[in-house]
Amino acid sequence: MRTFSLLKPFILLSLFMLASFPSADTPAQTPLPTVAFEKTTLPNGLQLILVEDRRLPIVAVNIWYHVGPANEAPGLRGFAHLFEHMMFSATRHIPRGLADQLLEGAGATDSNGSTDYDRTNYYDTVPSNQLELALWVHADRMGYLLDVLDQKALTNQQDVVRNERRQTVEGEPYGVVEEALAHAMFPKDHPYYSPIIGSHADIQAAKLEDVRQFFARYYGPNNASIVIAGDIDKARTRALVERYFGGLRRSEPVARPSVTTPPITAERRVVVHDRVELPRIYMGWLTPPAYQPGDIELAVAAEILGGGKSSRLYKKLVYERQIAQEVDAAQNSYGITSTFVIDVIARNGVDARTLEAAIDAELAELREHGPSQREVERARNSLETALLSSIEKLGGDGLADQLNHYNQYTGDPGYLSKDIEQLRRVTPQDVQRVVRAYLAKASRAVVTGLPGSPVVIDPPRPRAPRASKAAGKAVQGINTPEPWRAKAPKPGPAPGFTLPQGETFRLANGLTVLHHHNPALPLVSAQLLVRSGNAANPASLPGLAGFTAQMLEEGTATRSAPQIADEIAQLGAFLDTGSGVDASSVSLLALRASFAPALDILADVVLHPAFPTAEVERQRASRVNDLIQQRDDPEAVAAVAAAGAFWGGRHPKGYGQLGTEPAIRSVTREDLVNFWRRHYVPTNAALVVSGAITRGELKTLVESRFGAWQTADAPSGEPGGPEGSRARLVVVDQPGAGQTALRVIGPGVARTTPDFAALQVMNGALGGMFSSRLNNNLRETKGYTYGIYSGFRFDRTPGPFLIDSTVERAHTGASVREIIKEVEGMREAPLPAAELSAARDALLLSLPGQFETNADVGASLAELFVYGLPLDYYKGLPAQLRAVTAGQVQDVARKYLDPQQMKVVAVGDRKRILPQLQPLGLGTAEVRDSDGQLPRRTP
After folding, report:
1. Residue 753: C-alpha distances to residues 265, 749, 794 (Å)
2. Residue bearing the bigger pLDDT, 835 or 501
3. Rg for the chain (alpha carbons), in Å?
4. Integer Cα distance of 549 and 777 in angstroms
5. 35 or 561: whose pLDDT is higher?
6. Which string of b and e fits 345-378 if b means at least 16 CB within 10 Å?
7. Vertex 576, ends 571 and 579: CA angle to 5°?
8. DSSP per residue over 339-368, as a string?
9. What pLDDT, in 10s, does the model give residues 597-640?
10. Residue 6: pLDDT above 70?
11. pLDDT tens per residue, range 653-709
12. Nearest-CA neighbor of 393 among 132, 120, 573, 123?
């Protein structure tokens, strides 16, 4: 139930089965991958694609309806996305909300839907014994939604989608600027002109009869394809699909949209103002449709121009000239036409004209001279590794979705090998040819986003239409009611599964190594962790841990920052650094064939960082500009304000990862070097590796790369408890904001608490699931928000409990009132048996799905190290969850959820929201500045 933007990144689609990868090969020398699938078509036209994958006892169910904005009639823009929301309403046999409850209670993960320009999809990943449940739900939506579709459901989802628009377009920095790019590139009658979500007027204009006609026209089985991938028996699965879908009637044939896209023959220029501080430039060109000649070559061109730190735009604009904060380029491949988009954010003080001239210079250079062979190799290698990593996940936007993508655009779910073959054939001459042919200055639209007041047309919600006399009566459906469908299928025998435990060894210098061997794919994921993060920052230098981690990639004793970026890209690997509350990390993803040289670079940046003075100044400027950008994001500001109000200004946890501008400006090179020397020591570190490498192979590599790392005592000491102000209401003013970013924060617990399992079950029921009390109340019932979530942040020392949401401005006070009511409800009465079972089973049965990828396994093993949990922790976790009772849930709710100790943080239009909040008995509001900090006192 989320949208995709015009700037959706190009993703090469992935595979299921691969030939083995010899360890000496480079990515371009590996055998072409193949897809093992079975495709059939039911008599009613439904296409069925089956993939057997026994890696985990889970199954991904992914349905594509071949309808999107490309099919929308004039006057019904945004309709495909609105209807996507409607598909989660009640059906004839499944009351509203029951499907979500049953699927979550069955352990479903990646359960959602999305709309793109050419299609709408719905997907769930379930334990393999719950496949029939997922098919039952999806079939009833396809066959029996129309029977009970009513005005109440439509009105509610119109509210939800309008809040989604406020949050993801008008409340998102540069959201209205990006929207203007589509307007500039396409004529008004073109289906790609409007954003997928539509305007407020579009959303509100939808009539119930329009919805019914849309369903009848586009949601028949003959306009859909379903991919089922995972731990399945193909014959049994085919029989289940025939049982649940085979009797559904065909709709009238749906013709593919026949749309002519007029070319851009003269440069189009638009200036749009938004509630931002830094200028941003979007350049867009019309390019060949998906999988047509020129599409893959432009994807390589995009990687060369804007694909990370080794790209031309990054090197010239961000690194050398320091006039840009961020750069990106993407070939967005669609059915009618594709778009090539360059997107650059300026540094503070740099005007848009200077930025545009620099982009044009790089484009001219690429047109005139083309890329080097090495640049093309780097781009191809990076795309191949990204391709392989996307296969690890069965559901969501992983394997099943990718097969459906190939099926729609090429007619062949097994198109992968041809796709990869075309990628590998791209030459420097090909890239130069398509850049010359398609990326001309006269053929583009340029949209410049500047600081200012955005033009937002957000009319008030009209009165809901009166219910007709026929309201409440069943509508004539498309398919004959079948009583057997009213009963949810029972699960099959529970599949056996042992959560990955990993194994460990330690070097003589004290470095801990955690390893999980996963030979399924020729990929290896690694993380070098130190148990020192933001909580280890000195009180006077918030953000020092993050600054130090960021500097690791910026040069070593033998490699410059550009050399590090180029070498990593040449290997087709990905290297990143970061810092959280309790740990800092350097992460690596590489093919098995290139893991050893990639690990050389990881070891070099950890053991031999040079902290060059010029790079310190370059990253100092970057972090200051990151802070400026952060002000534009209400949710980020709410998080910073909540941390400061709860922990206090003298506590290291009282700030975000960036810290403050004064701290960034005052950090010295010596501060960075001293933090690295103190905390980046082997006794405080662990290397976590998961993937296609054996213990013996890994041990040899680790000893040669890290064996000489000089040992030292690990740092000791942890920060104390919260030292925040007494204020229970905190406000940050963002004049004119249409929504309010809310964050409720209160005392929590440490990760090692014996109450962990009970707290997780309790939170699942309160706000941790889509079917939770908070989300059901504020989103599904009242339509105040696009979504609301709660959770404990389990730190090494007690962390906070948090509730997050962005709500419609007019309902700010009512939303807080409902949040408090739901928190109190958890304390007052034990969970009913069904709710307890759903929350408990959602956690318990979804555990296998949380270990799908090497990165997932690595993150779980890293958690053991960071929080001092035993190696067999996950082996005992299922039993802990299974044993949680309603009494324990109520006990922990009473113990840890005290509304009187919670603070409410609201970021929004102060004049409009403060009068709503003051009657709630929260006391005098503490007002913070646009960074979320307390205003500095003037002497």
Report:
1. 65, 7, 9
2. 835
3. 27
4. 41
5. 561
6. bbbeebebebbbebbeebbeebeeebbeeebbbb
7. 165
8. EEEEEEEEPTT--HHHHHHHHHHHHHHHHH
9. 999 999 999 999 999 999 999 999 999 999 999 999 999 999 99
10. no
11. 999 999 999 999 999 999 999 999 999 999 999 999 999 999 999 999 999 999 999
12. 123
pLDDT at 735: 95
Give me 883's structure tokens: 């044993």
State the average pLDDT over residues 562-576: 97
Cβ partners under 8 Å of residue 526, min gap 6: 587, 588, 589, 590, 595, 599, 602, 687, 688, 689, 690, 691, 858
| pLDDT tens-place string over residues 434-491 | 999 999 999 999 999 999 999 998 888 887 666 555 444 556 789 999 999 999 999 9
Q: Nearest to residue 111, comparing CAs of 159, 51, 61, 156?
A: 61
Q: In terms of Cα–Cα distance, which of 587, 590, 574, 573 is closest to 528?
A: 587
Give the separation between CA 635 and CA 804, rounded to whole angstroms: 9
Residue with tokens 């986003």: 449
pLDDT of residue 474: 54
Q: Which among 170, 182, 197, 449 is positioned nearest to 326, based on CA atoms? A: 449
The residue assigned the tokens 């961000």 is 318
Instruction: Find the farthest-apart pair of alpha carbons in the chain and give their distance in angstroms, rounded.
Output: 82
- Judged against a pLDDT cut of 70, whether residue 817 lies above it is answered with yes
User: Rounded to whole angstroms, how far apart are CA atoms 643 and 653?
Assistant: 7
Q: Among all chains, which residue has been given the structure tokens 């890329």?
A: 371
901, pLDDT greater than 70: yes
Structure tokens at 914: 């403060």
* Cβ–Cβ under 8 Å, residues 222 and 66: no
Among all chains, which residue has been given the structure tokens 């691969």?
Answer: 18
The helix or strand, by DSSP H or E, that contains position 101, with its residue range, turns out to be helix 98-105
Q: Say which DSSP state 556 is in.
A: B
Contacts with 278 (C-beta within 8 Å, 6 or more apart), sequence order: 325, 345, 346, 347, 348, 451, 625, 628, 629
What's the start-to-end Cα distance of the chain, in Å?
Answer: 51
Asked which of 36-50, 607-621, 711-725 is least confident by mean pLDDT, the reply is: 711-725
Distances (CA, A) of 639 to 624, 659, 759: 18, 12, 22
Written as six digits, the tokens of 732 are 């940050």
Nearest one of 398, 400, 391 to 61, comparing CA atoms? 400
Q: List the beta strands (DSSP E) in 88-219.
A: 109-115, 120-127
The pair of three-digit structure tokens given for residue 84, joined into one six-digit string: 């996507």
Tell me, what's the pLDDT at 2? Answer: 33
Q: What is the mean pLDDT of the chain?
A: 93
C-alpha to C-alpha distance for 397 and 402, rounded to whole angstroms: 7
Reduced to 3 states (helix: H, G, I; strand: E, B; else coil), residue 912 is: helix
647 within 8 A of 639, measured Cβ to Cβ: no
The pLDDT-based confidence of 937 (bands split at 50, 70, 90) is low
Tokens of 47: 């296409």
Distance of alpha carbon 207 from the chain centroid? 32
Kindly give, in sequence order, each residue whose CB lies less than 8 Å from that of residue 653, ignoring residues fewer than 6 positions away.
534, 535, 581, 643, 647, 719, 795
| Cβ 434 vs Cβ 301: under 8 Å | yes
- Half-sphere exposure of residue 441, counting CA atoms within 13 Å on the CB side? 9
d(CA 583, CA 917): 37
Query: What residues have CB less than 8 Å from 88, skipping those under 6 apart?
Result: 1, 99, 100, 113
Q: Which pair of tokens denotes residue 895? A: 């113990």
Q: Which amino acid is at 817?
A: R
Beta bridge partners of 523: 591
**Phi-psi sector, 717: left (phi>0), alpha (psi -120 to 50), beta:** left
CB contact set of 664 (below 8 Å; sequence gap of 6+): 543, 547, 620, 623, 624, 627, 658
Q: Which amino acid belongs to residue 589?
A: L
- Does 799 score more than 90 pLDDT? yes
Q: Return the sign of the alpha-carbon dihedral for residues 375, 379, 384, 386.
A: positive
